[in-house]
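TL;DR need C-alpha coordinates for one chain.
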Amino acid sequence: MAKLTDGLYGYEVAMLLLGIVMFIVLLLGLIARMRKGGSVASLLPFFGLAIAMIGYPSVQSITIGKDLVTIQKSTHELTASPTNLELRQSIKATLQKIQSRPIGDASSLTTVAAAQYALGDDSAAKQNLQRALDVDPKIPAAKALQQKIATVDRVTELTNRLQQNTGDMQARAALQSTVSDAGKLPIANPNALTEIARGQAAMGDYSHAIANANNAAHIDPNGPGGRLALSLKAAEARK
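>> reply
TL;DR here they are.
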Protein backbone atom coordinates (compact mmCIF):
# COMPACT_ATOMS: atom_id res chain seq x y z
CA MET A 1 0.00 0.00 0.00
CA ALA A 2 2.85 2.40 0.82
CA LYS A 3 4.32 1.95 -2.67
CA LEU A 4 0.89 2.39 -4.26
CA THR A 5 0.18 5.62 -2.39
CA ASP A 6 3.67 7.13 -2.79
CA GLY A 7 3.37 10.45 -4.58
CA LEU A 8 -0.38 10.72 -4.08
CA TYR A 9 -1.84 13.82 -2.47
CA GLY A 10 -3.60 13.43 0.87
CA TYR A 11 -7.06 13.65 -0.62
CA GLU A 12 -6.15 10.97 -3.19
CA VAL A 13 -4.98 8.60 -0.46
CA ALA A 14 -8.15 9.29 1.54
CA MET A 15 -10.28 8.67 -1.55
CA LEU A 16 -8.51 5.37 -2.20
CA LEU A 17 -8.89 4.12 1.38
CA LEU A 18 -12.52 5.20 1.65
CA GLY A 19 -13.25 3.60 -1.71
CA ILE A 20 -11.76 0.29 -0.53
CA VAL A 21 -13.73 0.40 2.72
CA MET A 22 -16.93 1.29 0.87
CA PHE A 23 -16.41 -1.54 -1.61
CA ILE A 24 -15.88 -4.09 1.16
CA VAL A 25 -18.96 -2.89 3.05
CA LEU A 26 -21.06 -2.96 -0.11
CA LEU A 27 -19.77 -6.43 -0.98
CA LEU A 28 -20.80 -7.72 2.45
CA GLY A 29 -24.18 -6.05 2.06
CA LEU A 30 -24.60 -7.58 -1.39
CA ILE A 31 -23.86 -11.07 -0.06
CA ALA A 32 -26.28 -10.58 2.84
CA ARG A 33 -29.12 -9.44 0.54
CA MET A 34 -28.54 -12.25 -1.92
CA ARG A 35 -28.77 -14.78 0.89
CA LYS A 36 -32.07 -13.28 1.97
CA GLY A 37 -33.33 -13.11 -1.60
CA GLY A 38 -33.61 -9.33 -1.46
CA SER A 39 -33.07 -6.85 -4.29
CA VAL A 40 -29.50 -5.68 -4.88
CA ALA A 41 -30.33 -3.01 -7.48
CA SER A 42 -30.13 -0.16 -4.98
CA LEU A 43 -26.54 -1.09 -4.15
CA LEU A 44 -25.22 -0.99 -7.71
CA PRO A 45 -24.78 2.82 -8.01
CA PHE A 46 -22.75 2.79 -4.80
CA PHE A 47 -20.51 0.08 -6.26
CA GLY A 48 -19.87 2.43 -9.18
CA LEU A 49 -18.95 5.22 -6.77
CA ALA A 50 -16.61 2.95 -4.81
CA ILE A 51 -14.89 1.76 -7.98
CA ALA A 52 -14.45 5.37 -9.12
CA MET A 53 -12.98 6.33 -5.75
CA ILE A 54 -10.49 3.45 -6.01
CA GLY A 55 -9.84 3.93 -9.71
CA TYR A 56 -8.92 7.63 -9.79
CA PRO A 57 -5.99 7.52 -7.34
CA SER A 58 -4.89 4.18 -8.78
CA VAL A 59 -4.65 5.76 -12.23
CA GLN A 60 -2.72 8.67 -10.76
CA SER A 61 -0.29 6.25 -9.10
CA ILE A 62 0.25 4.41 -12.38
CA THR A 63 0.79 7.72 -14.20
CA ILE A 64 3.38 8.80 -11.64
CA GLY A 65 5.19 5.50 -12.07
CA LYS A 66 5.22 5.85 -15.85
CA ASP A 67 6.46 9.45 -15.60
CA LEU A 68 9.29 8.38 -13.31
CA VAL A 69 10.35 5.64 -15.73
CA THR A 70 10.27 8.17 -18.59
CA ILE A 71 12.31 10.68 -16.59
CA GLN A 72 14.89 8.07 -15.62
CA LYS A 73 15.31 6.87 -19.22
CA SER A 74 15.42 10.39 -20.67
CA THR A 75 17.89 11.63 -18.06
CA HIS A 76 20.24 8.78 -18.95
CA GLU A 77 19.95 9.75 -22.63
CA LEU A 78 20.56 13.40 -21.83
CA THR A 79 23.80 12.70 -19.98
CA ALA A 80 25.00 11.01 -23.15
CA SER A 81 23.85 13.95 -25.30
CA PRO A 82 23.85 17.05 -23.05
CA THR A 83 23.20 19.55 -25.86
CA ASN A 84 19.95 17.88 -26.93
CA LEU A 85 17.64 20.78 -26.07
CA GLU A 86 14.48 19.01 -27.22
CA LEU A 87 15.13 16.11 -24.86
CA ARG A 88 16.02 18.55 -22.08
CA GLN A 89 12.71 20.36 -22.52
CA SER A 90 10.82 17.05 -22.53
CA ILE A 91 12.39 16.05 -19.20
CA LYS A 92 11.57 19.44 -17.75
CA ALA A 93 7.92 19.17 -18.80
CA THR A 94 7.51 15.67 -17.35
CA LEU A 95 9.36 16.63 -14.19
CA GLN A 96 7.05 19.58 -13.60
CA LYS A 97 4.11 17.17 -13.49
CA ILE A 98 5.43 15.19 -10.52
CA GLN A 99 8.11 17.13 -8.62
CA SER A 100 5.53 18.88 -6.44
CA ARG A 101 3.96 15.56 -5.41
CA PRO A 102 4.71 14.12 -1.93
CA ILE A 103 7.17 11.47 -3.11
CA GLY A 104 8.86 9.53 -0.30
CA ASP A 105 10.34 6.48 -2.03
CA ALA A 106 14.15 6.65 -2.11
CA SER A 107 14.44 5.35 -5.67
CA SER A 108 11.84 7.81 -6.96
CA LEU A 109 13.45 10.71 -5.13
CA THR A 110 16.80 9.77 -6.68
CA THR A 111 15.26 9.74 -10.14
CA VAL A 112 13.85 13.22 -9.57
CA ALA A 113 17.14 14.49 -8.13
CA ALA A 114 19.16 13.12 -11.05
CA ALA A 115 16.84 14.81 -13.53
CA GLN A 116 16.97 18.10 -11.65
CA TYR A 117 20.76 17.97 -11.55
CA ALA A 118 20.96 17.22 -15.27
CA LEU A 119 18.76 20.25 -15.94
CA GLY A 120 20.98 22.46 -13.78
CA ASP A 121 18.65 22.85 -10.80
CA ASP A 122 21.42 22.13 -8.31
CA SER A 123 19.63 23.26 -5.16
CA ALA A 124 16.50 21.16 -5.70
CA ALA A 125 18.61 18.18 -6.80
CA LYS A 126 20.72 18.25 -3.64
CA GLN A 127 17.63 18.58 -1.47
CA ASN A 128 15.87 15.57 -3.02
CA LEU A 129 19.10 13.57 -3.06
CA GLN A 130 19.50 14.13 0.67
CA ARG A 131 15.89 13.06 1.24
CA ALA A 132 16.58 9.86 -0.72
CA LEU A 133 19.70 9.13 1.30
CA ASP A 134 17.82 9.79 4.54
CA VAL A 135 15.34 7.08 3.52
CA ASP A 136 17.96 4.65 2.20
CA PRO A 137 21.63 5.61 2.74
CA LYS A 138 22.83 2.64 0.69
CA ILE A 139 20.83 3.09 -2.52
CA PRO A 140 23.44 2.78 -5.32
CA ALA A 141 21.95 5.36 -7.70
CA ALA A 142 21.77 7.99 -4.95
CA LYS A 143 25.33 7.35 -3.82
CA ALA A 144 26.54 7.60 -7.44
CA LEU A 145 24.78 10.93 -7.88
CA GLN A 146 26.16 12.14 -4.55
CA GLN A 147 29.67 11.25 -5.70
CA LYS A 148 29.18 13.02 -9.02
CA ILE A 149 28.02 16.22 -7.32
CA ALA A 150 30.82 16.02 -4.75
CA THR A 151 33.42 15.64 -7.52
CA VAL A 152 32.18 18.72 -9.37
CA ASP A 153 32.00 20.70 -6.12
CA ARG A 154 35.57 19.64 -5.39
CA VAL A 155 36.67 20.89 -8.81
CA THR A 156 35.15 24.28 -8.00
CA GLU A 157 36.82 24.41 -4.61
CA LEU A 158 40.25 23.48 -5.94
CA THR A 159 40.01 25.78 -8.96
CA ASN A 160 39.19 28.74 -6.74
CA ARG A 161 42.01 27.80 -4.40
CA LEU A 162 44.53 27.56 -7.23
CA GLN A 163 43.41 30.85 -8.78
CA GLN A 164 43.99 32.55 -5.44
CA ASN A 165 47.46 31.02 -5.18
CA THR A 166 48.91 29.73 -8.44
CA GLY A 167 51.93 28.40 -6.55
CA ASP A 168 49.87 26.01 -4.45
CA MET A 169 51.30 22.74 -5.75
CA GLN A 170 49.12 20.62 -3.47
CA ALA A 171 45.96 22.22 -4.87
CA ARG A 172 47.29 21.86 -8.42
CA ALA A 173 47.95 18.13 -8.02
CA ALA A 174 44.58 17.56 -6.38
CA LEU A 175 42.80 19.56 -9.09
CA GLN A 176 44.48 17.63 -11.86
CA SER A 177 43.29 14.34 -10.38
CA THR A 178 39.78 15.61 -9.65
CA VAL A 179 39.36 17.20 -13.08
CA SER A 180 40.41 13.91 -14.63
CA ASP A 181 37.77 12.09 -12.60
CA ALA A 182 35.10 14.67 -13.43
CA GLY A 183 35.90 14.47 -17.13
CA LYS A 184 34.95 10.79 -17.12
CA LEU A 185 31.52 11.41 -15.62
CA PRO A 186 28.35 11.58 -17.74
CA ILE A 187 27.24 15.16 -17.03
CA ALA A 188 24.48 17.24 -18.63
CA ASN A 189 24.35 20.00 -15.99
CA PRO A 190 25.47 23.29 -17.62
CA ASN A 191 26.74 24.66 -14.30
CA ALA A 192 28.82 21.53 -13.73
CA LEU A 193 30.17 21.63 -17.28
CA THR A 194 31.24 25.23 -16.72
CA GLU A 195 33.01 24.36 -13.47
CA ILE A 196 34.80 21.43 -15.08
CA ALA A 197 35.84 23.73 -17.93
CA ARG A 198 37.27 26.19 -15.40
CA GLY A 199 39.24 23.40 -13.79
CA GLN A 200 40.52 22.13 -17.13
CA ALA A 201 41.58 25.65 -18.11
CA ALA A 202 43.43 26.06 -14.82
CA MET A 203 45.35 22.91 -15.79
CA GLY A 204 46.09 24.35 -19.24
CA ASP A 205 43.78 21.89 -21.02
CA TYR A 206 42.13 24.51 -23.22
CA SER A 207 40.75 22.15 -25.87
CA HIS A 208 38.61 20.19 -23.41
CA ALA A 209 37.82 23.33 -21.43
CA ILE A 210 36.49 25.13 -24.51
CA ALA A 211 34.47 22.08 -25.55
CA ASN A 212 32.77 21.88 -22.15
CA ALA A 213 32.23 25.64 -22.01
CA ASN A 214 30.70 25.56 -25.50
CA ASN A 215 28.35 22.77 -24.45
CA ALA A 216 27.32 24.76 -21.37
CA ALA A 217 26.72 27.84 -23.54
CA HIS A 218 24.64 25.83 -26.00
CA ILE A 219 22.47 24.54 -23.15
CA ASP A 220 22.14 27.91 -21.44
CA PRO A 221 23.09 30.84 -23.74
CA ASN A 222 22.59 33.31 -20.90
CA GLY A 223 24.69 31.37 -18.39
CA PRO A 224 28.36 31.70 -17.47
CA GLY A 225 29.41 29.02 -19.97
CA GLY A 226 29.24 31.39 -22.92
CA ARG A 227 31.37 34.05 -21.27
CA LEU A 228 33.86 31.43 -20.18
CA ALA A 229 34.09 30.00 -23.71
CA LEU A 230 34.90 33.42 -25.15
CA SER A 231 37.55 34.14 -22.53
CA LEU A 232 39.14 30.71 -23.00
CA LYS A 233 39.31 31.13 -26.77
CA ALA A 234 40.95 34.50 -26.32
CA ALA A 235 43.43 33.06 -23.80
CA GLU A 236 44.24 30.17 -26.11
CA ALA A 237 44.78 32.57 -29.02
CA ARG A 238 47.26 34.59 -26.97
CA LYS A 239 49.23 31.45 -26.35
